[in-house]
Amino acid sequence: MSYEALMIVLIAIALGSYFKGAVGIGLPTIAVPTLAAFLGAEHAIVVLTIPVAASNIWICWRYRKMTTDVPNLKISLIAAGFGTATGALVLAWLSDIALLWLLVGWLGLYLLLLALKPDFQLKGEVAKKTTPVLALIAGMCQGATGIAGPVIASWIHSYRLHSKTYVFAVSLMFLVISGTHVIAIGGLGLYTEERIIQGFWALIPTILFTQFGMWTTPFISPKWFNRCVIAIIVAMWIKLIFQAILY
């Protein structure tokens, strides 16, 4: 990899890590396509599992006192973990392209709901009943396609949590799922010495810029925090549409 390419990759990881620390999402969305352009999709995904898992661990540790602020947390984690473990089996009969279009439809409906009702909030008895289902769907999407970000980002966003609590909640969900992903990739023997070394080098900009993002979160107004989250959700939606069209 040339110095110019390396610089582009490092900037992408740093930018994605900043958004990860500031609003809870964005690292894989920004870094994976950039790294894949130089190393290939599988190589990029395997390498980035290490910094992605590390960023989630770091955020969850720093915000660990916020566990009581997340609605229905225990059942969500159990359902997400179960969904991840069984997703490939349950959804094996659906093709990848069908799953991609289902995710496109999911985000499209959520964005339409926000356009029609900007103050929509999932709460009360409705939240209690739907949370296990949404967590299960997120885990199943990860287990079947490796893509859970769109479901988690939109689902947790519907709670309308405080900015730091939102960052913690999505990171905790991603930690359960990304941890399972790391174990699965290790079991398949996809971690080579080269990829592990690259993954650990990627930890340097990841931790630095994740922490920088966490420092800036308190200075982002609720209005702009909400706009940032929605902007990243829209970016995920557009990326999924192109991925489905070009499949």
Describe the structure.
81% of the residues lie in helices and 0% in strands. It has 247 residues and is mostly helical. It has one domain (3-245). It is globular.
What is this structure's SSE topology?
Blueprint: H1 3-23, H2 27-39, H3 41-62, H4 73-90, H5 96-116, H6 124-145, H7 149-157, H8 163-187, H9 193-216, H10 222-245
Helix pairs in contact: 1-2, 1-8, 1-9, 2-3, 3-8, 3-9, 4-6, 4-8, 5-10, 6-7, 7-8, 7-10
Summed up:
By secondary structure, this protein is mainly alpha-helical.
Average pLDDT figure: 85
Structural class: mainly alpha
How does the major sheet shape up?
A: none
Strand coverage percent: under 5%
Number of domains: 1
Number of DSSP helical runs: 10
- Amino- and carboxy-terminal Cα gap: 27 Å
Let me know the number of strands: 0
- The coarse overall form would be globular
Low-confidence stretches: none
Radius of gyration: 17 Å
Helix content: over 70%
- Order of SSEs, N→C? HHHHHHHHHH
Kindly list the characteristics that best describe this protein.
247 residues; globular; mainly alpha
